[in-house]
Write a structure and sequence with these properties.
single chain, alpha+beta, 7 strands, globular
Length: 261
């Protein structure tokens, strides 16, 4: 069962974009006509921005927002995706220690909660944001290439199946179309390449079929007929096998082999 999405607090949003409190509130200045309530002080850790519905309508067509240039509109999904991958790459303890805006009371529990929220937010939304990218830069490529996909096991229940499926399809096509991404060419595979790949596939093929990376099968029909698996990761010790069923994402790593046998 996928967890219900939560609304990030002001503290969550600022730390997602690695902004201090001053920088965050300054960045809100152009949006002031569209913000009904801005939490300050201790409330920043508990409450989110209260936006005018007209702003949400504008965000559906960001090219119509006067202070956003075409370049910034196109760069926004990549920046958010980079932030998401950064949050997913850290443990909660490590992330809580490098927050750009920490709890005003210095409360470690609040900082840990913010770190947990950021990672959960990233697990739920990285995939949908990623497929909106039209300008794919080297910074994001390097962040994905360095990412240890075993980190996703912590939040598998927060990953939406449909969005993750679309992400897999998107990255396969992006690698084909963009020379910058050539080093990611084997990040997704249905055929094993490493010795540990073979061991993972051997265990999972008992309950699932390989995912068609040409994505010719209708998504819903394919998953109803049989769960699908795909290998994800560039380094063999960090490889995971993802099993997709209609309403859940299940992830196993090589560390789980002893439990699968």
């Amino acid at each position: 069962m996928i967890n219900k999405p939560f609304i990030p607090s002001v503290l969550d949003l600022a730390n997602l974009f690695e902004l201090s409190s001053d920088a965050f509130y300054q960045a809100l200045s152009p949006l002031s006509p569209f913000i009904i309530t801005i939490p300050y002080g201790k409330l920043a850790a508990k409450q989110s921005l209260h936006l005018n519905p007209s702003f949400l309508d504008m965000m559906a067509s960001p090219e119509q927002i006067p202070w956003l240039t075409e370049a910034s509109t196109r760069q926004f999904p990549e920046r958010v995706t980079r932030a998401y991958f950064y949050a997913l790459s850290k443990t909660n303890i490590a992330l809580s220690q490098c927050l750009t805006w920490k709890s005003e009371t210095g409360d470690p529990e609040t900082n840990l909660r913010v770190a947990h929220d950021l990672a959960r937010l990233a697990a739920a939304h990285t995939w949908k944001t990623c497929i909106q990218i039209t300008l794919f830069g080297r910074v994001l490529r390097d962040r994905i290439r360095a990412f240890d996909f075993r980190r996703l096991q912590r939040f598998a229940s927060s990953i939406p199946v449909n969005d993750f499926w679309r992400f897999l399809r998107w990255i396969v096509k992006a690698v084909e179309d963009n020379r910058i991404l050539a080093s990611l060419s084997s990040i997704i595979r249905s055929k094993p390449e490493f010795d540990l790949d073979f061991k993972l596939v051997e265990q999972c093929r008992k309950i699932a079929k390989p995912l068609d990376l040409d994505f010719k099968e209708p998504r819903a029909k394919a998953l109803r007929d049989s769960p699908r698996y795909v290998l994800l990761g560039l380094r063999r010790q960090e490889t995971i096998i993802v099993i997709l069923i209609p309403d859940a994402v299940t992830i196993y790593s090589v560390d789980d082999l002893k439990y699968l046998e």
